[in-house]
Amino acid sequence: MFFTRDFTRNFTRNLTRNFTRNFTRNFTRNFTRNLTRNFTRNFTSNFTSNFTSNILHQKLHQQHSHQNRACPHQQQCR
Length: 78
Prior knowledge:
Layout: H1 2-68, H2 74-77
């Protein structure tokens, strides 16, 4: 009787304590690691993609506007 009661009480207490400690530690570690990893990966990917896209768009726009603009040296521009 005493053994069962003590065992149950200790088992429950240890299970709760260990679960809480491990869950908190692992959640914090994984959350921080994943947040950092995903932020770095997404930021790098998006920045590179947007930067390249903007550069190409600007080049295209410059060529297009240069062809349509009245140029004082039309013979050289064509």
